[in-house]
Write a structure and sequence with these properties.
Helix 1 runs parallel beside helix 9 and helix 4 packs across helix 20. With 812 residues, this protein is an alpha/beta fold. Strands 25, 26, 27, 28, 29, 30, 31, 36, 37 and 38 form a ten-stranded mixed sheet that branches. An eight-stranded parallel beta barrel has the order 1-2-3-4-5-6-7-11, surrounded by six helices. A hairpin with a 2-residue loop joins strand 20 and strand 21. 30% of the residues lie in helices and 24% in strands. It is globular, with a radius of gyration of 31 Å.
Length: 812
Amino acid sequence: MSRMEEKIEILAPAGSYDCFVAAINAGADAVYAGGMRFGARAYADNFTPQQLLDAVDYAHLHKKRLYLTVNTLLKDSEMKELYAYLKPLYCQGLDAVIVQDAGVLSFVRAYFPDLEIHASTQMTITNVYGAQYLKEYGVKRVVPARELSLAEIRRIRSETKMDVECFVHGALCYCYSGQCLLSSFIGGRSGNRGQCAQPCRLPYTAKEKKGYLLSLKDICTLELLPEMAEAGINSFKIEGRMKKTEYVAAVTAMYRKYLDMYYEKGKAGYKADQADLEQLKDIYNRGGFHTGYYKKHNGREMLALDRPNHAGVPAVKILVQKGREVTAEALTDIHRGDILELTKERDNYTFGKAFHKKQKVSFLVPKHTYYKKGTILNRIRNQALLDELDKKYVFSKKQEKISGFFRLLKGKPAVFILTMKDVCVQAQTEACVQKAQTRPLEREEIEAQLRKTGNTPFEFETLEIEMEEGAFLPMQQIKQIRRDALEQLEREVCQIYRRKMKVEEAMADTPLSARKKEAQITEGNPNPYPMLSVLAESEEQLLAVEEFFKGEAQRQEKIRLFRVYLDVGISGGLMPSKEIRAVCENLQCKDIEVFYALPHIFREEAAVRLRETYSEFYDAGMDGVLVRNYEEIQFLKEQRFDKRVILDHNLYVFNQSGKHFFQAQGLREFTAPLELNAKELAQLGIENAELIIYGHLPVMISAQCITKTVQKCRGESGICMLTDRYQNQFPVKNYCSLCYNVMYNTSALYLADYTETIEKLAPKSVRLQFTVERKEQTLEILKQVDLQLTGKGTANTSQSAYTRGHFKRGII
């Protein structure tokens, strides 16, 4: 089937019920929305439980679909609530859930088997391997990382045959979705919990260049739409659950218009009108649009360096200024109620009357505000456009075409038959039709009453009336049979989608894993003092580790180094150098395991390179690997990798269901999640986990490059410092071999002095994660940790130098 024959879905966002209705009215085929719990937009208006149920029916009555966002990480205490949350929606006929948490995926598949599962972009799926992995565990549709090219998306679609949903319009995160901990660590508002405070929209400085260095422009792909269709994308997704109703309506209607144009005219006859692109800018843009990552890997032009918010469109050009009074030329039609931005401090002017393009306009500006002749000021609110959208989509009523047949025969009940496609219902009056005593009913007045469908979702396309001459029925009974028939039709259409539960609630109360209900803390734990592992990202860090553990520290009783992780970038490429391997062999001679930490992002290029060198990789002498994404799990599975595999912290094991999901695959060892506090970690049980107790933790992983943004691409790996408005410095490392950046937290995590709590948690091991430290710093940290974990003494751990992360406070 060609893309011209296959129906591509327009998927619109809804942060409120009003947005949902507007999206349907504007031409959306499906809408994604969140309830009061578990969605990635906690600060949207969101839907009440009853509104969600109503929305399911409203969508189905109009032959549309509704997807529920459950795309956050859930704690164990919340997993108990998930069954009751989803059950009424499942029974109502909810079309799909969008998930991030592997535990939620496992739970939904087990207890709601007929409910379609879509993998959120928060799962950071970047190639065929990741998509195939999720397909094997019941995922129907994948929303891949927004950083992928059309070629990469085409491969996912063609090789997995999964539905692929891609963003076509709206805001982009600077970080790969699902990998961002910046908001969480600097403000306690976790993006993985739907509470991102958007620190990427704040100003930063790097290499003496200041600006909104992490703030990407919104994407607009109208001009790419045919290519996206031909890449095999099944669903064109619009971002914007935090946006206003008019925004949702405008963008949805625009993509509906252009997808229909593509169907009608094909790629050859397709062309985006500049006036339509300007209208989208009028609704919202951050200094213009770009087409995202579909045709380029990154670039300075993709960023809104000058401002992070709505920039509007050019509206007036300054001609002359006298004091506070400014005279300007209108560059576009201006309407009463339009708002002109006077300064970036959001001093605005609201027009009290309309002006045509090229007319002169005069207005007052704030004191001490001066403009050069020719300065362009932008309109940031187009009132006429908003009014038009309200009238056309927000406050309009969408009704489906139905056919009706009304029979009025004397001595028999009146019958009203309604048909909507394959659904047919029949209503009849209680009383029989009488012979008229005075004035018989006229066909016209019967038809007028029957056609009054009011606020129902129906309107008559055809209405046939069969009646005997001289028949009579009280008008009240005609109204009642109309109401009865319309209500019955509505019920029957919705009934098609209803489901019955297959798994009882009592079973859902039982955890999926055979865990103990109490926190897994036991007296006399066989491993009260966990062993130590170290991750090294540089050669000098590795040498410092080797040097420190040559002597007595390695022989002490309570704690010993048992494992070293080599980061993928330690030698600048995917394979460690000969010098690094020699160090590793020395470590292994001392019974210290050597694991290879695979890339944070494993896109097609990385997969190809590792496939080509897999024999060398396997024979390099490693004892196992640390994996950081679903792609790497599937890659190793297909290569029949038979060494140990440990999950890193960003393959979030956030709840018992998640533990069970990975354990069922033989993946029992994981890294304790960074956003759970000590009490929550105890609930989870980390006896098979590593607990990170030191390190500058990754808070962003981005396809963009800070160095390229402020200077130019040098193709050289290294570290630059990103400074925020409070003068906090965040190290940013270039992984040039695979072209991504890792941004680390400004302060290093330090938990080594929480020895009593760590002993109670009883992790399998604790990890020191060296990222940006030089050799001397590495040695100092090793000494400090050794003193505290062995109880040989106390170390100087200044509170200002370190962070406790979420170990004490946790996240909401």
